[in-house]
Design a protein that fits this description.
This is Cell division protein. The chain is of the alpha/beta class. The chain has a single domain, classed as P-loop containing nucleotide triphosphate hydrolases (Rossmann fold). The chain is built from 5 helices and 5 strands.
C-alpha cells in the first residue's frame, strides 16, 4: 500500500518556521523566569523520631544555602532542640530560633521574620492554615524576598 498526500492539505511548517511564525524566542534565549512561589508546606506524620530523620537533611540543606541570610525557625516543636540541631550537623551559625513571647503570636513573629529581609527561609509549624493566613505569609515573604515554609506535624 502506498501513501499519496492530498494536494488540498495545508503544508506542514518545519519546527523552526513554526517557532518564527508564532513569535517564539530562539532556543538559546533565556527562558522567562518561573513564577516564584513564596509559601510552601510540608506535612509529616508519625512519631517524632521519624519526623526528625526526615527533617534533618532538609534543614541541613537550608542551613548551608548559598544565600548569606539566616534560616529562621519560628516556634519549632520541642524535639527540635538546639542540641539536636548541633547533633545533625546543621550550620548553627546560620540558624535563628525564635519563640513567641507574651501577646506576640507565632504568626506575627513569622511575618516579622519574613518581612525583615534577614532570612532566606522562615520555617513555621502551624497545624492548620486558612486562606487568610496563607495570604498573610505569602505577602510577608514577598516583602522580604524570602521563602516561607510551613511544616505540619500529624500524630
Amino acid at each position: 500500500m502506498q501513501y499519496f498526500p492530498t494536494t488540498n492539505a495545508k503544508p506542514q511548517l518545519s519546527l523552526f518556521e513554526g517557532l518564527i511564525a508564532h513569535g517564539m524566542p530562539p532556543f538559546l534565549a533565556e527562558p522567562p523566569p518561573p513564577q516564584h512561589e513564596r509559601l510552601s508546606e510540608l506535612s509529616l506524620s508519625g512519631n517524632s523520631e521519624h519526623c526528625r530523620l526526615l527533617l534533618a537533611p532538609m534543614l541541613r540543606e537550608l542551613s548551608d544555602a548559598p544565600d548569606s541570610r539566616w534560616l529562621t525557625l519560628v516556634a519549632p516543636p520541642a524535639f527540635l532542640s538546639s542540641h539536636w540541631l548541633r547533633e545533625t550537623g546543621l550550620n548553627r551559625e546560620r540558624i535563628i530560633l525564635l519563640q513567641p513571647r507574651g501577646i506576640q503570636g507565632a504568626l506575627e513573629l513569622t511575618c516579622k521574620a519574613l518581612t525583615s529581609g534577614c532570612s532566606h527561609t522562615v520555617v513555621s509549624w502551624f497545624a492548620h492554615m486558612d486562606a487568610r493566613t496563607r495570604s498573610t505569609l505569602h505577602s510577608a515573604a514577598s516583602l522580604g524576598n524570602a521563602q516561607s515554609l510551613n511544616i505540619r506535624l500529624g500524630r
